[in-house]
Write a structure and sequence with these properties.
single chain; GlrX_actino; alpha+beta
Amino acid sequence: MSSETDATIEMYGADWCGDCKRAKAALDRFGAPYHWHDIEQEDGAADKAVSISGQKHIPVVQFGDGSFQVEPSANDLQAKLVELGQLAK
């Protein structure tokens, strides 16, 4: 597995967002630890999500290697975790 820093996943979204719920459930299912940032509750989280992705769509999932995905499917998340060595194929 990568170093702890590389393993850090930051997710920006909102509790009412269906895509956010699905992305959280997928990461939970894959056993991938992440930090949840609620864009409506956490000061600066919405601006941070926009600065990462350049758009206002959520969720924004940023990986330890600096890459990010916007509104990712479970398959997108799984493929990225495999690429990062955080999940076996």
